[in-house]
Input
Amino acid sequence: MSIRLHGIVQSNNCGEGNKLFQYLTALIYAEKNNLYLLNGPNIKCINIDYKRLNENKVKTDEGILKLQHLNTSHFDDDDELKYFGNDKLYWITDFFQNANYINKNYEIIMKYVTLKPPMEKSYNYNEQLTGNEILCILRMGQTKEIELVNPEYFLNIFGKHNFDKIYFLIYPSDDNDINKYLSYFEKYSDKIVLIKHNNCIEDFYCVNYFKYIAISISTFNWWSIYFLPDIENKIIYTPENLGDYHRKTDLENLKRNHCKNLWNIRNRTIAIENNWIILN
Output
C-alpha cells in the first residue's frame, strides 16, 4: 500500500507549477486510500508536510507489491481516481492537471500544505496600490510558439473596468518579443508598469497584493491563485481554453488529455474567451 511519484514530471525540465499538480494529486490519493508516499520532493514556493501525511501508515516492502501505473485515464465520470486495491505499488506517472479533482479536495491539500509568508516589502509597489490596479501574468518563452494568449484576451478584460494601473509580470523577463506583444496595448501605454523579477517566492505571492488578476498559461501562478487565503475578495480572470495549445504552423485549438477545466480555480475565477496568436 504505497505510492511513488514517477515519470517526466520528476525531471528538471518540468517547472514547479507542473510538478505541484502531480505532487498534490498524489497527496490527495494517498490520503483517501491510506497509502504511504515513498518520495516527497521539496517545492520552493510552499511547504508540504509529507511526514504528517505518512503518520500511522505502513511502509510496505516494494518487492512484494504489484506495480500499478496511475494516469489521467483512471479518472471516472465524477473525477475520482480509481483505486485498484491494497496489494499495489502505485506509480503516479502523469501530469494530472484536473482542476475538478484539485478543487474539490482543497481541504485535504491544506491539511498538509503551509504557505510561506509573503515578503513585507515585495517589489516596489505595495504602498502605491489603491485596489484599482490589475496584475496581468504573461507566459512567453518557448511556450509562446504553441500557446501564447492573444492580446485580445487582456484587452477584453481592460474594457470591463477603468483600471488606474496595469501591472505586467512576464516570464521570461528578457524575451525578445515582449515589446512586440505590448504594442497591442498602445491605448493603455501610460498605465502599463512592468514588474521586476526579484525571486520565485515573490513572483508566486505577488498575487496577494492585487484585487484584480488576469493570468495566461502559467501553471506556476495557477497555484499562487489557488492558495490565495482571501480568494473570495478577488476578481480573477483566466483563459477559457487554459491547458489547450496549437501547432506551430496554425492556430487551431487542440486539447491535452491530462488537462480538465484549468480555467476554474477553486470555483472563483471568471473564464474569458481566448484565441492564440503567433508573433511574426
